[in-house]
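Researcher: Here's the sequence for the chain we discussed earlier.
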Amino acid sequence: DFDNDGDLDVLVTHMTAAPSLYRNDSRPATWLGLELVGNGQSCNRDAVASKVELQAADGSRQFREVYANNGLAAQSDRRLLFGLGQQPAGEVSLTIRWCGRDDLRQSVRLRSGQYHRVAQP
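Model: Thanks. This is the structure I predict for it:
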């Protein structure tokens, strides 16, 4: 999400030419972005392998996991992005299972329509 507006953009690099940025200007929808920061002791600072469950106001659930990479010679934004479609903006509930500590769960309520940074307690 190059422009931090909640829709995914694509940057393609080329061996012999300048990079190409494909900006996504699709119809606005409700979304929530999340950057996790591990404590550096029981979970790495990048929070790789941490898992998040989002429960929206309509009861629907989504799951995401922080990955270090996503393919051969590819890289992706470490932040997690949840698309909520045409649901009204507001708070959503999240449950975070931090890496390295499957027994440690953190529950938070965050407002949609923006990115949030959550640090491991």
